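User: Hey, my collaborator sent me this sequence without any context and asked if I could get a structure. I don't really work with proteins. Can you help?
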Amino acid sequence: MGIVDEFARYKAKLRNRFYDISAEVGPETVLSLWRHRISVEGGRWIYRDHLSRWSGLGNEQFARHLKTAFDEKRPIRVVVATTDNPALAVEKGDWTFSVGAHVVAPKSGNGSLAGGALDADVGDDWRPTITAEYFLTDKLGLEILAALPFEHDIRLNGANAGSTKHLPPTVSLQYHFRNDSKVTPFVGAGVNYTVFFEEETRGPLAGTELELDSSWGLAGHAGVDIEVGSNKWLRIDARYIDIDTDVKVDGAAVGTVNIDPMVYGAAFVWSF
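Assistant: No problem. I've predicted the 3D structure and written it out in structure-token form, which is a compact way to encode the shape of the chain:
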């Protein structure tokens, strides 16, 4: 049955069958609601949406009808609309959140220190990660990445010389290629800020004070979201982050380490 027939079951008539999604009939209000925005909690139906993103004749009328129903305490009847198009599951004004695990893998050969006398290599590490993304449009989102502190071993000329921890918060603008399948690719670009702390020394640097300066750099992001349920996805992704840090030993500048890692992993994503 189409939306016109569904409304007719409640003796309600849509003024325009192409864009109307609400109607008033007698003392009642009839609304069409997306099934993917309904959750059942404690035996109750909970519908979550954002009035701020509604525009157009049908949606504006829907907002008016909804306000009138609440103001006048009118009974509301619901027509549940479904879609096979996963692209409609996230729209302008929505938030998505993710929890996952990612590896920070610095590029091979991270530069030379002390006038070329020491070759630096920074090791890999993985940690749990989280993201939050706000959709500015149906396809364009603003994402922030955060994680528990990563810890990396530092080798100089092959010898274990110390370690450091870092936090790499990254803000990206992301474009999602919405389509009719359950797989949604996306790409993004943004800015990373990396702060280093708890530097430790050993081996050839034992007894010295190691200091790594914070870094600002560009970041690229690409991946795919695979639908695994209503408003739920498995994300597989990779980032490139430009991270360069000036190195000081006992307060003296000894050079720059170019970390420039690939960050890759997987996460579980859900939307609100």
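In plain terms: Residues 3-82 form one domain. You can pass these tokens on to your collaborator as they are.
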